[in-house]
Amino acid sequence: MSKKPLLEFTDKGIYCATGKFYIDPWKPVDDAVITHAHADHAYLGHKRYLAHHFSREVLLYRLGEINLQTVEYGEKVIKNGVEISLFPAGHVIGSAQVRVEYKGEVWVVSGDYKVENDGISTPFEPVRCHHFISECTFGMPVYQWKPQADIFNDVNSWWRSNVDHNQATVIVGYSLGKAQRILQNLDLSIGNVYTHGVIENTNEALRRNGIKLNPTIRITQDTPKEEVRKGIILAPPSSVGTPWMRKFNPYSFGYCSGWMAIRGAKRRRAADRGFVLSDHADWDGLISAIDATGCESVYLTHGYTATFTRYLNEIGFDAHEVHTLYGDDEGINSVPEEEPTVHPTTSKANGFEKSEAQVLSFGEDLGEAKKEVKI
Amino acid sequence: MKAFAQLFLSLDETNKTNEKVKILKDYFNTVPDTDKMHMLALFSGRKPKRQINSTLVRNWAIEASKIPAWLFEESYHVVGDLAETMALLLAQNRGSSHKTLTEWIAEINALSTKTEEEKKLWLMDSWAMLDSSERFVFNKLLTGSFRVGVSQSLVIKALADITGIEAPALTHRIMGSWMPETYTYEQLVREQSASDDISRPYPFFLAYPIQETSEKQKSTDELKIDLGDEDQWQAEWKWDGIRSQLIKRGGEIFIWSRGEDLATDKFPELHPFLQALPDGTVIDGELLSFQNGQPMPFNVLQTRIGRKNLSKKILEESPVAVIAYDCLEYKGEDIRHKTQAERRVILEGLQAATPFPEMFRLSALIPFNTWEELGQTREQSRAMIAEGIMLKRKSAAYQVGRKRGDWWKWKIDPLSVDAVMIYAQKGHGRRADLYTDYTFAVWDGDKLVPFAKAYSGLTDAEINKVDYFVKRNTLEKFGPVRTVKPELVFEIGFEGINKSTRHKSGIALRFPRILRWRLDKPKEEADTIESLRALLGE
C-alpha cells in the first residue's frame, strides 16, 4: 500500500494526520486553520484557530471569544513537524490559501479564490505544489467575467441615474468581501455611502484591523430618508424584501453576484439590476490558477465539481471530485436563504437530516456566531 | 439590432409594468417602421422561419466555442436556454453591429437558398460581429425560440399610447396570419375594415376563474355576493376541447385555434358545414371529438392533433364537431358590442339553419334558478366530459382578452392522489439550474411506478427546498435527469384520467400539477396504482 496522503478528506473537514490539524473543519476540532472568515469555512467550536492577520477582527466579531493565532502571508508555522504557511487567495480581505509541507511534499488548499485584483484584497498568488485542493464554484464555461472596471462603470451610472430620478439606490452583496469591494469602487463624487448594520459591523471590524475603507454612514432609525436617497445603500442579501428595505421606497435594487451572469438566475432573484460581480474565479481563472500550481493532482471541493473534474481530466490533469460542506457564499444557487422551516417531528419524512441541516450554512450569515448551532 | 438587444436587456431589468411600457415606447420611437413591425411579429409569437436546423447551429456553436460537446450540453442544462448558452460560450467580443433588425431578419430569410457551407460561413461571421447581448437575441431569432418576458397586452398598450388607437382595435389588427415583410406600420395604424384581411380572427374573450384555487371553495352565498342575481347569467358546460374561431368570409373558410394557429386543414370534416354558412360569419366555440354523438375526452382529440395525415379510420371513428357558443360577426358585421343574449339568438338562428347539425352543435344552456342548484349540476361535469361550468353575463359584450366581471369559469375540483417524487430534472428560463420538474410515482405492491410529471404548483421557497433535497439525495444521474431517494410526498391534482398504452402505468392524466407538499406523510402512505385505476371509473 502506498503511504497515507498528507491531507485527507474526513467527515469533519480536510485533515492533516501528521500535523494533527484541520483546514476549514465543519465539526469541532482541536486545531483549525481557517482560509477565510465566511461562515461556511469558519465554524464555531474549535479549540485553536489559525488565520491571517486581516481575518482577526472579523473572526472575533463573528465567532466571539476564540483562541486565535494570526500570521502574515508567507510566515511559517510548524505543527508536529508539518510546516504551514498562508498565501493570498484574493477572495476577500484576509483570505488565504493554506500551504502545507512535510518532508518535501507540498499541498495547497485554496479555500475560495479569485484571480482578478479587486484593489482591496491582497491579490491571488499561485503557489507551486504537488497537490492542489481547489474550489470550483463557477466551474462551467458559461461563466466568464468582465473586468471589474466595466462592471463598476455600470454600477456608478446606474446610481447616478437613480439620483437623477429621485429614487434610492440599494446595492446588495455579501457583507464580508463584496460589500467592501463595492465600497472601494464607487464613485463617491455622486454621493454618500450608507450601510446596513450587518455590513457596518463588518466594516468596523476591518477598520479595527487597520484596513482603510472609504467613509460610510450606518443607517439608523434617525437617518433621514431624503438624504439616503441621494446616496447609495449597501445591504446584505438577507435584507432583500424585508420591511427594512421597503422603507426606502421608491428604490432601485441591484444585486452583485456571479450568478447574475445567467438570465434565469437574475430573473429568479427579481432584482432591478443584476451585476455580474464575483469574488470567485471564473472558468478561465480556475483553469489558469490550477495550471499555475504545476500540481500533479487536483481535488475539487465545491461548485460544479463533477463537470469541472471531468473536463480537467480530459485536458490532461489528474483531477478528483471530493465531497465537502463548503457552500456557496454568493447565496443564490442551491442553498435556501432562510433556515428550512422543517417541523422537528417531520424532519425525517422530508429528508433534511438533522445533523446536515445544522452543519450547513444557509446562505448569508448575519455576522454573528450561530449560537443555536449545537456543537 | 443594437436597439433590439437593448430592448431585451432593459425589459429584463425591471419588474414594473409602467417601466416596461416606457421601455417599449422608447423602442418604438427610435426604430424604423419596418423594425417596429418585426418586433410586433416577434412579440406576438410570430417566429421567423427556421433557416438552419438547430442541431447544425448547436454543432457550429460547439465548434466556435472550442469545448467538447458534452460540456456544451451540461452548460445548456445550467443556463436553461439554448440561445443564451451559445451567447455565453462564444468568446467575448467587443464589436457591435449596425444592421437593423429588419436587415438581420432579411439575411436570415435569405439563407433558405444557401448551401450548408455558406450558412456556416455566414453564421460564424455574424457571431464574430455581435456583442454578447446582441448574440443572445440573434440566436433567439435564428433558433426560432422566441419567448419574451412581456405580455402582448403591454406591447399593445405602448403602441396604443403612441398611435392614439385604442388597445382592443390594435389587438384585433395584429391577429391572424400577417407577415412583417408585407404588413406595413402605415397599414396597421390606418383606419381599417373587415375586408382588409378576410382571414383575420377576432381576439378571444377569456374567462377568469371564479374561485382562485381549489382549496378555497366558494359557497353559494359567496357566489351570490360576487355575481348577484341568477337571472343575470347564462350557464353552459365548460367543454374540454380546442377553443376555436370559425370564419366564413368571401366564400373562403378559416379555422383558428386559440394559439392563433390556422388549423383549417386539420379538420376537414368541418368544411362542409362552414361552406354552408352565410358569408360574413364568425363563430366562437370548442372543437371536440365525438363518438356516436357523444363528446370524447380530450386525449382522443390530442392523438390526432400532432398527425400530418388523418387516416380514414380516425375521421370515421371520432370525427370532430364544433360546440358553438358565440357569434362574433354576422352578415359581415362585427357584432361583438351586442349583448350576450342578443348574440345567442343570432347563433341559435344560424344553427337552426344548418344542414349539418351533427357538425355544428350548440353549447346547451344549463337551466337553473339558484346558485345552489347550479352548484349541484356542476357535480355532474365529469360525466358530461366537461371541466365545469361557464358563467356569462347576459348583458355583456364580447370583450378582448382575459377580463374580470362578465365571463367566469367555475371549474370542478381536481382529482388527486398522494405520490412520491422519484425523478427530478432542471427547469428552464427563470428556473434554470434549479430542480423544478418532477416525476411522481405510486405504489404497485412494493414497487413505485411513475405515472405523472408535474412542473408547477410549488412556491419559490418550496422549490428551493426540494432543489436542496434533490442535490443531496441523488441516487443516479441520466443526463439531465436525476433519480432521487424516494422520500418526498406530494398531493398531485389532475383534471381527468384515461387509459393509455403509451405510459408504463397504463394511465394518462390531464393537467397534472402539484397541489401541495405533504410534509406530514411518509412515503409508505402514498397512494397505490389501484387507487388510480379506481378513478378510471370503469
Observed structural traits:
heterodimer; A: 375 residues; alpha/beta; Metallo-beta-lactamase, Chain A; Rossmann fold; 7-stranded mixed β-sheet; 6-stranded mixed β-sheet; 10 helices; 19 strands; globular; B: 538 residues; alpha+beta; DNA ligase i, domain 1; D-amino Acid Aminotransferase, Chain A, domain 1; OB fold (Dihydrolipoamide Acetyltransferase, E2P); 7-stranded antiparallel β-sheet; 20 helices; 22 strands; 36% helix; 24% strand
Report the CATH topology name of the largest domain in chain B: D-amino Acid Aminotransferase, Chain A, domain 1
* Beta-strand percent range of chain B: 15-25%
The class by helix and strand makeup of chain A works out as alpha/beta
Distance between the termini of chain A: 36 Å
Q: How many DSSP H or I helices of chain A?
A: 10
The quaternary organization reads as: heterodimer
Q: What does the largest sheet of chain B look like?
A: 7 strands, mixed
Give the averaged pLDDT of chain B, no decimals.
89
Q: What is the CATH superfamily label of the largest domain in chain B?
A: DNA ligase/mRNA capping enzyme
Main CATH class of the largest domain in chain A: Alpha Beta
Please give the order of strands in the largest beta sheet of chain A: 7-8-9-10-11-18-19
Q: What is this structure's SSE topology?
A:
The complex is a heterodimer of chains A (375) and B (538).
Chain A (H helix, E strand, L loop, with lengths): L7 E2 L4 E3 L4 E3 L7 E3 L14 E5 L3 H8 L4 E4 L4 E4 L2 E7 L7 E7 L2 E5 L21 E6 L11 H17 L3 E5 L5 H8 L7 E3 L1 H12 L8 E2 L6 H6 L1 E4 L7 H4 L4 E6 L6 H7 L3 E3 L7 H10 L4 E7 L1 H10 L4 E3 L32 H6 L16
Parallel strand pairs in A: 3-4, 4-5, 5-6, 10-11, 11-18, 12-15, 12-16, 13-14, 13-15, 16-17, 18-19
Antiparallel strand pairs in A: 1-2, 2-3, 7-8, 8-9, 9-10
Chain B lengths: L1 H11 L4 H14 L2 H11 L10 H12 L3 H11 L2 H8 L11 H10 L5 H14 L2 H12 L8 H12 L3 H7 L11 H5 L15 E2 L1 E2 L10 H8 L5 E7 L2 E8 L2 E6 L13 H5 L5 E11 L2 E2 L2 H8 L6 H6 L2 E11 L2 E2 L5 H13 L7 E3 L8 H8 L7 E8 L7 E2 L4 E5 L3 E12 L8 E10 L2 E8 L5 H13 L1 E5 L2 E4 L4 E6 L1 E4 L7 E4 L2 E5 L11 H7 L3
Parallel strand pairs in B: 1-12, 2-13, 8-10
Antiparallel strand pairs in B: 3-11, 4-5, 4-6, 6-7, 6-8, 8-9, 11-13, 14-15, 14-18, 14-19, 15-16, 17-18, 19-22, 20-21
